[in-house]
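Q: what sequence does this backbone want?
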C-alpha cells in the first residue's frame, strides 16, 4: 500500500496497484469526476481508501512512521560521532580532536572518492551491508576506548586523537549507509527523514551532557549498537522510495537534480555555496582565536531547543507544501544565524557562548541540509551513491575543518578580529550571491523549458495526426509512445524519470538499452521498471501496451 496525501503540488497515492488500475480505467471512461486541479476525484487533500475511510495528512505521517528504523539508525550514527569527537557539544567542539580528526578522516575518504570516480566503481548490497556492520563495531569500539581513559584518569592525547579520527571515519560511513537507503524518494519524505533524525540525535546528545563523560560515552555506545537491529527492521518496513511523493517541484533540489543532474554549473554553484558558508562555520566555531567556546547549562539548553525548534518548523512547512523552504528558505535561515552569531560575539565579548548558540545551531542545520542534498543527488545521479556522499563531506566538512585549523594556527601570528569579522561577512555575502543567482537562473530555465514543452506537445499532436509529411513512421511511433507514457504517468502518478523509462520500455527496448539511452545503470533501470509495475498494477510489457491502447488518448 502506498500513502496518499496531496499538498502544494505533491501528490502521495494511497491505493493498491490493482485498485489504481481499476480507478484509472474508471477515470478514462469518465466515471470519475476530475477535481479543480485536474486530478481524479479520489486524489485530494482527503481521499477515501478501499474501506471508505478518509485519508488525511496524519495518515501520511503514520505511513512515514514506517521509516523509524532508518531515522533511528541515522540519529544514533550521528550521535555516536558527536559524543565521541565533539564532546556532546558541551562546547562548540573539541578543537583539534574534532576538525583535526575530520581532516584525517577526509583524507581516507578522498582515496575512496578517487577510486569510485576514476574506476567507476559501483558497490553492491552485500559489500555495503558488510562494511556497515564493520563500521558500527568500530564506532562502538572507539566510544568505549575514549571512555576508558576517563575512567582510568589517563590522558594520552595521541591515542585520543587517533580514536577520534577513527570514530569520525567510521561514523561517516554509517551515516552514508542510512542516506543511501533513502535514495529514490522525494522532497517531503527526504526532509521528514533527515530533520527527524537530526531532532532525535540532538535529544540523545543533550541527555549525554547530563551524564559524566565516561557514562555518556557508554550510553552512546549502546545506542550505536542498536543500529544492527535497525538494519534488520528497516528491511521489513516500507522503503522510502515506496512512499510515492508524485513529481517533485522544479524549485527544490529533487526537481533540480532530475532535470539538471549533468549540469556542471549547477553542481559547481551548489558546492561553492555550501563550501563558502562552511568556511564561515569553521571560523565561527572557534571565534576569535580558534579555541572551542564552552557552553553554560543555559546556553547549551538554548542551542538544543533552537535547533529542534527550527528543524520542526522546516518539517511542518514541507508537509504543508512549502518545499521552497529547503532551497532559498534554508539558506536565508543559515545566513541569518551566521549574522546573529557575529553580532552576538561583538555585543557580548565576555560571553562568547551566546554567539556559540547561533553558531552551533547553524552547524546542525548544515548537517541536515547536506544530508538532504546528498539524498537528492544519490537518487538521480549516475554514479555510485557513496560518490555523492563523500563529495558532500569533502565540500562542507573539508572547508569547515580547513578554515578552523587555519584560524587555530594563524591567530597568534595575526590576531586581528576586525579582519576576521570582515572575512566572515564577505563569505556570507558570496555564499548568498552564488546560491541565489543560481536559483534565479533555474527559474528562468523553467520558463524556457515550459515554452519548449508546449511546443513539443503541439509537435507530438501534429505527428500523431499525420500532418508532418517529413517524419518517418518510427518517429511518429516514438512520439506517440512518449505521449502515451506521459498520459499513464499522470494517471498513475509516475515520476518524470519513470515516464522516460516507460516510453522506452514500451517501445521494446531492453533494460540494458533503456539504461544506455538515459545514461543510468542497468540496476537503476530495473528498479524504475519494478516501481512502474508496482504503481500501475500491470505485470508485463504486453499489458502496458494493451493498457495504452485502451485507456490513453
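A:
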Amino acid at each position: 500500500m502506498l500513502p496518499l496525501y496531496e499538498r502544494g503540488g505533491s501528490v502521495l497515492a494511497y491505493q493498491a496497484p490493482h485498485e489504481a488500475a481499476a480507478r484509472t480505467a474508471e477515470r478514462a471512461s469518465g466515471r470519475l469526476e476530475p477535481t479543480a486541479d485536474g486530478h481524479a476525484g479520489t486524489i485530494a487533500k482527503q481521499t477515501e481508501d478501499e474501506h471508505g475511510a478518509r485519508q488525511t495528512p496524519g495518515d501520511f505521517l503514520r505511513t512515514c512512521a514506517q521509516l523509524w528504523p532508518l531515522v533511528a539508525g541515522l540519529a544514533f550514527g550521528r550521535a555516536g560521532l558527536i559524543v565521541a569527537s565533539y564532546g556532546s557539544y558541551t562546547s562548540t567542539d573539541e578543537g583539534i580532536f574534532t576538525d583535526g580528526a575530520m581532516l584525517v578522516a577526509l583524507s581516507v575518504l578522498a582515496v575512496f572518492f578517487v577510486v569510485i570516480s576514476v574506476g567507476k566503481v559501483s558497490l553492491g548490497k552485500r559489500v555495503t551491508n558488510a562494511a556497515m556492520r564493520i563500521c558500527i563495531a568500530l564506532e562502538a569500539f572507539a566510544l568505549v576506548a575514549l571512555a576508558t581513559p576517563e575512567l582510568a584518569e589517563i590522558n594520552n592525547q595521541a591515542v585520543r586523537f587517533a580514536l577520534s579520527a577513527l570514530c569520525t571515519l567510521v561514523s561517516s560511513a554509517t551515516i552514508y549507509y542510512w542516506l543511501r537507503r533513502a535514495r529514490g524518494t522525494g522532497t517531503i519524505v527526504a526532509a521528514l527523514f533527515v530533520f527527524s533524525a537530526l531532532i532525535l540525535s540532538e535529544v540523545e546528545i543533550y541527555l549525554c551532557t547530563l551524564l559524566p563523560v565516561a557514562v555518556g560515552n557508554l550510553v552512546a555506545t549502546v545506542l550505536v549498537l542498536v543500529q544492527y537491529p535497525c538494519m534488520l527492521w528497516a528491511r521489513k518496513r516500507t522503503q522510502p522510495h515506496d512512499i510515492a511523493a508524485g513529481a517533485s517541484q522544479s524549485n527544490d533540489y529533487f526537481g533540480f537534480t532530475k532535470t539538471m543532474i549533468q549540469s556542471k554549473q549547477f553542481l559547481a554553484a551548489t558546492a561553492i555555496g555550501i563550501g563558502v558558508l562552511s568556511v564561515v562555520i569553521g571560523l565561527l566555531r572557534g571565534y576569535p582565536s580558534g579555541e572551542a567556546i564552552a557552553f553554560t547549562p543555559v546556553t547549551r539548553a538554548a542551542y538544543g531547543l533552537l535547533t529542534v525548534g527550527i528543524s520542526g518548523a522546516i518539517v511542518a512547512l514541507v508537509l504543508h507544501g512549502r518545499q521552497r523552504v529547503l532551497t532559498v528558505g534554508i539558506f536565508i535561515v543559515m545566513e541569518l544565524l551566521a549574522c546573529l552569531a557575529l553580532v552576538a560575539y561583538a555585543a557580548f565579548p565576555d560571553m562568547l557562548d551566546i554567539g556559540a548558540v547561533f553558531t552551533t545551531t547553524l552547524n546542525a542545520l548544515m548537517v541536515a541540509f547536506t544530508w538532504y542534498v546528498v539524498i537528492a543527488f544519490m537518487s538521480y545521479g549516475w554514479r555510485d551513491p557513496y560518490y555523492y556522499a563523500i563529495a558532500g563531506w569533502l565540500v562542507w566538512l573539508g572547508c569547515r575543518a580547513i578554515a578552523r585549523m587555519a584560524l587555530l594556527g594563524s591567530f597568534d601570528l595575526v590576531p586581528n578580529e576586525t579582519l576576521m569579522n570582515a572575512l566572515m561577512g564577505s563569505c556570507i555575502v558570496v555564499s548568498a550571491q552564488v546560491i541565489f543567482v543560481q536559483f534565479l537562473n533555474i527559474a528562468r530555465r523553467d520558463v524556457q523549458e515550459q515554452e519548449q514543452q508546449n511546443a513539443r506537445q503541439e509537435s507530438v499532436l501534429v505527428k500523431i495526426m499525420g500532418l508532418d509529411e517529413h517524419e518517418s513512421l518510427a518517429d511518429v511511433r516514438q512520439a506517440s509512445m512518449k505521449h502515451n507514457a506521459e498520459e499513464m504517468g499522470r494517471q498513475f502518478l509516475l515520476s518524470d524519470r519513470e515516464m522516460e523509462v516507460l516510453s522506452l520500455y514500451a517501445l521494446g527496448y531492453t533494460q540494458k538499452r533503456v539504461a544506455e539511452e538515459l545514461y543510468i545503470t542497468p540496476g537503476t533501470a530495473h528498479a524504475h521498471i519494478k516501481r512502474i509495475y508496482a504503481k500501475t498494477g500491470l505485470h508485463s510489457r504486453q499489458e502496458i501496451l494493451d493498457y495504452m491502447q485502451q485507456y490513453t488518448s
